[in-house]
């Protein structure tokens, strides 16, 4: 299933809190209503996702996650894979400026490679550039609707903005993919009180 197109607009690339919340709310409503249907597609990725959902222990789930992430990290181009590796290495050592440079080169040259957008969203989140992170997560999910890391990222953005109810909804959706993920479980605990009375 194709997620409906959604275009994010910013003022000077630094959206106001109100503008950003409106942007992410519209985006989330697209994601929340579109993603569950994608899980029924027949593919090798879905088979791995089924194993992830049914993993008996967190350790078993982590092994499947690594398998899925390895598959998602293959762009089909050695040079693009190198840019992803350099971007991730820069992120790991805390050089966020360099990470953005490598990952922007990657998204420019391989715009259909979801993992490039997701990894850059992680960097933007670290930089507290939440509007740009949301835009990259949108692109990630348009290319890979089953990207549970991107869904969890939406939850993290909402939680950071103080919207516990929407954060809980995003974490709850991420949980349908990876119910034993510690970050998702802890996110649900932190935001559960905000979700009382909210129709999910």
TrEMBL record:
SUPFAM superfamilies: TPR-like. Residues 1-41 form the signal peptide. InterPro entries: TPR-like_helical_dom_sf, TPR_rpt. The keyword Lipid metabolism does not apply. It holds the Pfam family TPR_16. TPR repeats lie at residues 114-147. Keywords: Signal, TPR repeat. This is Uncharacterized protein. It comes from Pseudaestuariivita atlantica.
